[in-house]
Each structure stands twice: as C-alpha cells, then as structure tokens.
Amino acid sequence: MTAEYDASGVFFSAALVSATVAYAVALALRLILVRTNAYRFVWHPALFDLAVFVILWALIACGPWPLGLR
After folding, report:
1. Where are the domains of the chain?
2. HEC states along the chain?
3. What average pLDDT does the segment 34-48 reach?
4. pLDDT at position 2, please?
C-alpha cells in the first residue's frame, strides 16, 4: 500500500510531502551556512546544496530509523 496524506480530500504522496519538508530544512540550513560564510570551504555550492537536499530527503523519507531511534 502506498502511503498518502489527505488534506481536505486532496491526496498527496508521501514522497512529495517528505521532499517538501527536506527542501524547507535545506533552505534553512543554506541560510545558516551563507550567514556564517561557510560556503568559502565548499568547492561547488550548487552541488553541495543538492547533496544536502538528497541526504535530508533520504533521512526524512526513511523516518527515524537511520538515526537509531526505534
């Protein structure tokens, strides 16, 4: 069975919801990194942002299990 979220009769897939949450967290993290000038240590900021987004999406999509919280 595919996981879906219901919002007033409109169904959203779990992948879309988890990607949206990961994007919001990645944006917040990007703002923190820009304000602390941490991007000076990064070779390619766009690739770094993509990698951070993919890692966050994987952690959120898998739930708390990768963190050892069962």
Report:
1. 19-64
2. CCCEEEECCEEEEHHHHHHHHHHHHHHHHHHHHHHCCHHHHCCCHHHHHHHHHHHHHHHHHHCCHHHCCC
3. 95
4. 63
